[in-house]
């Protein structure tokens, strides 16, 4: 069994409900076991500003699936929720990103591990620090800092934990 970290986000069609349903889907999928789920966070959009705010979360799962299989399952789940990709950073019903898979380093067309931009995103780092504070970032800029140490950079960003 491998440990994986997955980021979830939505800003269309009742985004809080979409993220909650996606977490329930993860928890009830054979071959996946939900270990931890963060709180939900409201986040201003990144990259394309003319869209509603996002609801984000991060989960940790244990899985029997290999990393490429898990990534394909995430893409299939996005599509099942109605995700469309009209342009980069477009509004979306559901976005699922595989952040880490057993600390594997991988660079293929389908999957890059660890996620190459996770350390740049408060909407990933704050919920990640909540559930796995001692997770060590392996990106060169992070210099081996833990998620909770790195997340302090984002405490004043437009990311707020929901009650």
Summarize the structure.
Belongs to the HPPK family. The protein is of the alpha+beta class and 163 residues long. It contains four helices and eight strands.
What characteristics describe this protein?
4 helices, alpha+beta, Alpha-Beta Plaits, 163 residues, six-stranded antiparallel sheet, 8 strands, 26% helix, single chain, two-stranded antiparallel ribbon
Helix-strand blueprint:
Blueprint: E1 2-10, H1 15-27, E2 32-37, E3 41-43, E4 54-63, H2 67-80, E5 95-101, E6 106-107, E7 112-113, H3 122-131, H4 147-151, E8 159-161
Antiparallel strand pairs: 1-4, 1-5, 2-4, 3-4, 3-8, 6-7
Molecular structure report:
Its EC number is 2.7.6.3. It holds the Pfam family HPPK. GO terms for molecular function: 2-amino-4-hydroxy-6-hydroxymethyldihydropteridine diphosphokinase activity. With 163 residues, this protein is an alpha+beta fold. It has a single domain, classed as Alpha-Beta Plaits (2-Layer Sandwich). The chain has four helices and eight strands, in the order E-H-E-E-E-H-E-E-E-H-H-E. The protein starts with a strand and ends with a strand. The model has no long low-confidence stretch (mean pLDDT 92).
């Amino acid at each position: 069994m491998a440990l994986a970290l997955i980021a979830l986000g939505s800003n269309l069609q009742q985004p809080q409900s979409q993220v909650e349903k996606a977490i329930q889907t993860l928890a009830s999928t054979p071959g996946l076991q939900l270990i931890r789920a963060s709180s939900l966070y409201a986040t201003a959009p990144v990259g394309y500003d003319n869209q509603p705010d996002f609801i984000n979360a991060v989960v940790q799962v244990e899985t029997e699936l290999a990393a490429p299989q898990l990534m394909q399952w995430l893409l299939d789940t996005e599509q099942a929720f109605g995700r469309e990709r009209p342009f980069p950073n477009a509004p979306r019903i559901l976005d699922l990103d595989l952040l880490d898979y057993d600390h594997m380093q991988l660079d293929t067309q389908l999957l890059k591990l660890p996620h190459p931009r996770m350390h740049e995103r408060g909407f990933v780092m704050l919920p990640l620090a909540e559930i796995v504070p001692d997770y060590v970032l392996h990106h060169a800029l992070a210099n081996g800092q833990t998620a909770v140490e790195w997340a302090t950079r984002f405490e004043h960003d437009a990311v707020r934990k929901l009650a």
